[in-house]
Design goal:
102 residues, mainly alpha, Arc Repressor Mutant, subunit A, 2 domains, two-stranded antiparallel sheet
């Protein structure tokens, strides 16, 4: 969320992840301890802290994504052309359904 959506307040993250703020607070604390996110004061409201992904946090996320994509590509390589076509058609249906909800 922070890598692709930019800085967010703790409450915004909790709502996006559908967890309670105390749960998100514990998650954020662990991410901070690992150097993956940092807190910053909001430029418009000094009472509010925004959480931002660090460079290390972005690298960790991108590395994990690359591994998942690689595994998926390897699995798809094992399928027949017909099976890949079926998956492609299904993905198109999902994209269309999601576009209609926006």
């Amino acid at each position: 969320m922070l890598v692709f959506g930019g800085p967010r307040a703790l409450g915004e993250l909790a709502a996006a992840e559908q967890v309670r703020p105390p749960t998100m607070s514990r998650v954020v604390q662990a991410l901070e301890e690992r150097g993956l996110v940092r807190r910053e004061r909001d430029a418009h409201d000094g009472r509010v802290h925004r959480l931002r992904a660090t460079a290390k946090g972005r690298r960790v996320l991108q590395g994990a994504r690359a591994r998942r994509v690689g595994k998926l590509a390897a699995l798809l390589d094992e399928l027949s052309g017909e099976e890949v076509a079926s998956i492609s058609a299904a993905a198109g249906l999902v994209e269309r359904a999601l576009a209609q909800q926006s």
